């Protein structure tokens, strides 16, 4: 099984995933204490299975992960109905095809600027810039 912290795996995870896929689509990763899927079909089945809902548990220690927990605790992706439905209604208009297409030029400019900025940084200093807990500079309004 792969070590998700191994620099070689991080640089190119695809051979490890291909080897696992040759053995099956779902595997138990004892180091992560999780089941992992290594195919699109298995991943899609897990994501769509009503019995495998998302129940957010705050990361610990709470003081260190306050912002991270707040972001995920209130995320559309981390909730099941009725919270998911309520959140989806709030944002539904922002994801209409026309609106998303109008955002494309701005998102492309921001992404290009971020890539240019990251190109000169080492992976160690680049990570905080790419953190999923950082607000995106893209705004819909």
Automatic annotation (TrEMBL):
Entries under InterPro entries matching the protein: Cyt_P450_sf (IPR036396)
Chain intervals for the UniProt region annotation (Disordered): 119-141
Bias-annotated ranges (Polar residues): 128-141
UniProt-listed Gene3D superfamilies: Cytochrome P450
Molecular function as annotated in GO: heme binding; iron ion binding; monooxygenase activity; oxidoreductase activity, acting on paired donors, with incorporation or reduction of molecular oxygen
Family: Belongs to the cytochrome P450 family.
Protein name (database record): Cytochrome P450
Lineage of producing organism: Bacteria, Bacillati, Actinomycetota, Actinomycetes, Pseudonocardiales
């Amino acid at each position: 099984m792969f070590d998700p912290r191994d620099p070689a795996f991080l640089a190119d995870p695809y051979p490890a995933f291909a080897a696992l896929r040759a053995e099956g689509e779902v595997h138990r990763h004892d180091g992560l204490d999780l089941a992992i899927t290594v195919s699109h079909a298995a991943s899609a089945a897990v994501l769509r299975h009503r019995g495998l809902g998302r129940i957010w548990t705050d990361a610990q220690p709470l003081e260190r992960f306050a912002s991270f927990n707040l972001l995920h605790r209130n995320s559309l992706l981390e909730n099941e109905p009725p919270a998911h439905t309520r959140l989806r209604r709030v944002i539904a208009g922002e994801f209409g095809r026309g609106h998303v297409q109008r955002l494309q030029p701005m998102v492309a400019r921001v992404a290009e600027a971020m890539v240019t900025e990251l190109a000169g940084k080492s992976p160690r200093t680049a990570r905080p810039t790419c953190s999923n807990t950082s607000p995106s500079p893209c705004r819909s309004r």
